Amino acid sequence: MDLEKVEEMAQLIIKDLSEYNWSDRLKNIPALIAEIRNLMNISFQILPEHEYFFLNVFKTAQSSDIRNARIAIKHLLEIVKIEKASESKVKEMKIFEGAEDKLKQANLSFRKDDYTSVFHNLNTALEMVLKDKVKIPMTITKVNTSNIIDNLVKHKLEPYLHLVEARKHVLSIDNKIKHQGYSPSKIDCINGIKAMEELISRLRGKEMKLTEEIRNKIYQGL
Predict the structure, then answer these.
(1) What sections of 47-185 are H helices per DSSP?
(2) Domain match, 137 and 78 both
(3) Are residues 85 and 147 in the same domain?
């Protein structure tokens, strides 16, 4: 199921929600609860970076009211809009621009206090930026981002200091979330977003001058 289908389902739920008063409780409308939970399950399969948001909406659906349910679905539609733009740019081989859209998604999650999703999106943005600048095909998944940064920093390739900051404030926090169950703070998010904004700003429109030796070391570590 693709983003268009998720968007269509969300729009239909928005229409269904409009038939009730904002203060009505979803617990009295089990059919709507089922629709919303089904949408959250499907959305998670397509947009795993926003797992925390989808899980939270799924869990709280029964205790929510129409107004909050509508806000949640509208938020999902914003995510879908940005993701569609990102996918379009990646297909056009505008990978760096696609990474910028992931940064937009991180900011969107930050406004909803969804701090875990902030880092999942920042980490994806970091991976996309590195793939673009190091010329790694997008079809190669699960690259060793840490190894790429280590090689670039070791050889002091600009902007290596900004890469150090991205590793510290984005990659390391995302790893703690995934492997240690860490709950990021608002300060973590601000530092992470700042690190990625500065890295993207420094790399926008610029090429990394990699020697064949450095590129081969990076490729061997993928």
Answers:
(1) 51-60, 66-91, 95-111, 115-134, 145-154, 160-166, 172-180
(2) no
(3) no
Do 217 and 157 touch, CB atoms closer than 8 A? no
pTM of the model: 0.85
Q: 201 and 122, same structural domain? A: yes
Convert the pLDDT of each residue in 158-213 to its tens digit: 899 999 999 999 999 999 999 999 999 999 999 999 999 999 999 998 888 888 88
Average pLDDT over residues 43-64: 93
Instruction: List the domain range (segments joined by +) for residue 57.
Output: 1-92
pLDDT at 70: 95
9 CB-near residues (< 8 Å, 6+ apart): 35, 38, 39, 42
Cα-Cα-Cα-Cα torsion 139, 144, 148, 154, nearest 10 degrees, comes to -170
pLDDT, tens digit (0-9, with 9 covering 90-100), for 28-53: 999 999 999 999 999 999 999 999 99
Is the domain of 19 the same as that of 69? yes
Q: List, as own/partner pairs, every contact residues 81-87 make where C-beta atoms lie below 8 angstroms and the sequence separation is at least 24, other chains included.
A: 82/108, 83/3, 83/47, 84/3, 84/7, 87/3
Same domain, 4 and 25: yes
* Beta bridge pairs of residue 140: none
Bridge partners of residue 25, in order along the sequence: 65
